[in-house]
Design a protein that fits this description.
Number of domains of chain B: 2
Distance between the termini of chain B: 30 Å
Distance between the termini of chain A: 52 Å
Strand content of chain A: 15-25%
Number of strands of chain A: 18
CATH architecture of the largest domain in chain B: Alpha-Beta Barrel
Number of domains of chain A: 2
Strand order of the largest sheet of chain A: 4-3-2-5-6
Structural class of chain A: alpha/beta
Number of helices of chain A: 14
Strand content of chain B: 5-15%
CATH class of the largest domain in chain B: Alpha Beta
Oligomer: heterodimer
Largest sheet of chain A: 5 strands, parallel
Helix content of chain A: 25-40%
Shape of chain A: globular
CATH superfamily of the largest domain in chain B: Aconitase, domain 4
Largest sheet of chain B: 4 strands, parallel
Shape of chain B: globular
Largest interface: A-B, 61 and 50 residues
Chain lengths: 418, 180
Amino acid sequence: MGMTIAEKILARASGRGQVSPGEIVEAEIDAAMINDITGPMVVDGLRELGVDKVWDPDKIVIAFDHQVPADSIDAARNHILLRKFAAKQEISNFYDVFEGICHQVLPEKGIALPGRLIVGADSHTCTYGAFGCFAAGIGSTDMVAVFAKGKLWFRVPESVKVQIEGTLPKHVASKDLILQIIGDVGADGANYRSVEFVGAGLRSISVAGRMTLCNMAVEMGAKTAIVPPDRLTRNYLAGRTKQSYKPVRSDRDAVYVEELTYNAAKLEPKVACPHSVDNVRAVREVEGIEIDQAFLGSCTNGRLEDLAQAARILRGKRISGRVRMIVAPASKEVYLDALERGILKVFAEAGALVEAPCCAACMGGHIGILGPGEACISSSNRNFKGRMGSPEAKIYLASPATVAASALKGAITDPRDL
Amino acid sequence: MPRAWVFGDNIDTDQIIAGRYLVKTDPRELAKHAMETIDPKFATRVRAGDVIIAGRNFGCGSSREHAPVALKAAGISAIVAESFARIFYRNAINQGLPAVVCRRARKGFKSGDEVEIDLEKGMVHNLTTGKSFKCEPLPEFILRILRAGGMLPYLKQSAEKGGEILMGFGARPTSVEWRR
């Protein structure tokens, strides 16, 4: 029987010829990531278990991104704990403050490679599926087992196929596409499943755009999301890794429990309204809602093409006086590229705050906290009640273009109108 | 007698424990803010042994294990939901907090009803109304983790028995019925 990419990777990693959805397998992990929020509990767990040496220091990645630089004594203490752990365990992939958001750093450093099985103690680990790997978010205790033994149990997920045709129109981005999909299937529409994006439409969606698609698959409950590797994948990875990798493809007779088709050419700008990611409307329907904050960044939309798109809208203009705009490039690499191209200057001149690479306003515990009654338009991934601070604040999720257009006008605005 | 706390669909982990508290690692500190976004009085009113009864997709969102840690430390002894988000589900079991899928329980409970759960038999009883609800049975290896009090105690026990840390489930695959 044919297998999907997800099934093939789990079969290979568990040393079996064939696996089927529903089976439990124990698989060997190719890379495992923790960040400054989920990491401390892993270090504590290893101590409790009496594990002195991790299974493989070259397969572990530690990235500081949620609270960088430290904004409290507690955060600083967590950073100290992880720095000491990284030094003692001789972790080769340790990324301290300023390297960027974990989900941007792993691809940039050539760790997210086609065919790999990757786990991360962060729900948006599924982002790496943009490179044809099986990447799943796990909790800290599961990560203790991985750090100790290099293995973890998985339930082989059913696969869903999302076929994308056509090319996205101007001012419509992969963010609008994934919001449309999540709105259609619901917040648990892909629960426990692997979502495979395929189709000719993907050829015109950049690696950055594919990362946005895979990143938000968890917002419909997916365990992982995968884009089959192609020329764009190879071009991105060239020069980023010396390690060999073997792209994996789904068999022709692979089984999908559901197939969805989208024509990218027919899409329009979308927004996820409070307080759930599947509460998706056309920007047209909610135009004019006043906003107090605009956030451009996060593992969903903090890459160079996202920043460039917003900068094209803001160049030579000033944002609305009622809006605080926060821009946080996803990594040092993105930050330096944007600096070089004058993109950060565009933001500063427009009146936006340019922050160091970090999760910033998305995690609601560091910078850009919202007060009661405030509204924020954000390029990030979650609009849950209280996500960015006060439970009485409202968060609208949209593309970088819609965020920039709205910052300019002080109210939710369709970027096609500018 | 344990009481039920009834919640709706899509209770996300930001509502269970907000991002601003994630720098804390002490379970007692986290417990003070459990469910604060939905019900600011939850943490002071919940009693040891109480049970959460919820709708679909409980625990969706972040992978923060602080969520089940906070609920358990607050006194919650089990969560019964129509379905769970997958990362939360594993985190809850790993923390030794039973997460039980039960399709009909939510409509059969009001907050404050007295509740009793039989994990081995897979039943939830509403002692206030006298009605009982069948749950999806937990696989044996999950029951073993829960009996040990969570994944870490379970791994410690198996290390003591086997001289090394074993995952416990072995490489032999088993088919488990656990649908959303």
